[in-house]
UniProtKB/TrEMBL annotation:
PANTHER family: EAMA DOMAIN-CONTAINING PROTEIN, INNER MEMBRANE TRANSPORTER
Sequence ranges assigned to domain EamA in this UniProt record: 5-130, 144-279
Pfam families reported in the protein's UniProt record: EamA
Keywords: Membrane, Signal, Transmembrane, Transmembrane helix
Protein's cellular compartments: Membrane
Name of the protein in question: Drug/metabolite transporter (DMT)-like permease
Superkingdom to which the source organism belongs: Bacteria
Membrane topology: Multi-pass membrane protein
Organism: Nocardia bhagyanarayanae
Secretion signal span: 1-19
Transmembrane segments: 33-51, 63-85, 91-111, 118-135, 147-168, 175-195, 207-226, 238-257
Family as reported in the entry's similarity comment: Belongs to the EamA transporter family.
Annotated stretches, region: Disordered: 298-332
Annotated Low complexity bias: 318-332
């Protein structure tokens, strides 16, 4: 129960990040907005977690994870925000990510789909088509932006799946710090050419406060809590809570930016939600192929495909400090 409450907190923070990031993109180029968010997030992580030790043999894997989940995701995410409403992104990314996770798990042989889950995949894909067909005719930029959001969702799914095996060997804090640092370095290289387009002296106090919020909460705290959850309940269960992000994201986009989605898009979003929800529910007739990541343990629910001997204190020595930070945030 406790870890699921932390996941809800993570989804609330990520939902708010769509509107906050859209506000940042309105003042600086999208490359710069993405880099500033994760530069601040990396610094916060390094200060709070004190640069945990990373074995040299794991450096390439963790760096590669950062290229996919931090650089790849955010390059597409912030580009999408510069082209399409934050409301679209708050639906596409969290709805598509769980579907991608299940689909890739099937292709890798980790999960055998039941008839119900196959039907759910069809429903979700149909919902995605309806959502894109329902995009208002406001030019090609919105469609292109929504496609960028779809690519970002694929990157996030890969980030989740590739990160799970690492958590059987490394603390969640270590993976998060160095994956974020690697991805941020790549974002910085892309952002440097756009620095000349920024009127730094004219940026408002609200802009910098927004950047501080994005760095400390949706980035630093949320990423650590998310990976802690993946290590304890598995990637599929963790991504299934992303169904909460659209509710938080659409609410923030409406309150902060005055955005909304079209009625036909709402129908498509509902179908995607239904399909994604069914696909991440445990079913009696699903069978999971044991893998190295699951410690060879055969389980009925793929969300439990984490070594039963792996405990939260082994995965994350700093779990107490992270939980304390989360408790403080909830208290405020």
């Amino acid at each position: 129960m406790r870890i699921r409450l932390l996941l809800i907190l993570v989804m609330a923070l990520w939902g708010s990040a769509f509107a906050s990031s859209k506000a940042a993109v309105a003042e600086v180029p999208h490359e710069v907005a993405g880099f500033l968010r994760f530069l601040g997030g990396t610094l916060v992580l390094l200060v709070v977690l004190r640069a945990p030790r990373l074995p040299a043999a794991e450096v390439p894997r963790v760096a590669g994870l950062g290229m996919v989940g931090v650089f790849g995701y955010n390059a597409l995410f912030f580009l999408g925000l510069s082209l399409a409403p934050a409301a679209d992104g708050s639906v596409i990314v969290p709805m598509a990510a769980p579907i991608c996770t299940v689909a890739v798990s099937v292709l890798l042989g980790r999960v055998r789909l039941s008839g119900m889950r196959s039907l759910a995949l069809f429903i979700a894909v149909t919902g995605g088509i309806v959502f894109f067909v329902g995009i208002p005719d406001t030019g090609d930029s919105r469609l292109l932006g929504d496609l960028m959001f779809l690519g970002a969702a694929a990157c996030w799914s890969a980030y989740t799946l590739l990160g799970a095996p690492l958590l059987s060997r490394l603390p969640a804090a270590t993976v998060t710090v160095y994956a974020t640092a690697a991805g941020t370095a790549a974002l910085g290289m892309v952002a440097v050419p756009a620095f000349g387009d920024v009127r730094w002296s004219e940026l408002s106090l609200e802009f910098w406060l927004n950047q501080a919020y994005l760095a400390a909460l949706p980035t630093a705290l949320a990423y650590v809590l998310y990976y802690r959850a993946v290590g304890q309940v598995g990637p599929t269960t963790a991504t299934s809570t992303m169904f909460l992000v659209p509710a938080f994201g659409l609410t923030c986009a409406w309150v902060v930016l005055g955005e909304s989605i079209a009625p036909l898009q709402g129908i498509g979003a509902g179908l995607m939600f239904a399909g994604a929800w069914i696909n991440t529910r445990p079913t009696v007739d699903d069978s999971v192929v044991p893998t190295a990541e699951s410690g060879g343990v055969v389980v009925e629910d793929d969300s439990a495909a984490v070594d039963s001997t792996t405990r939260s204190d082994e995965l994350n020595p700093s779990a107490d400090s992270i939980s304390s930070a989360a408790d403080s945030l909830r208290a405020s």
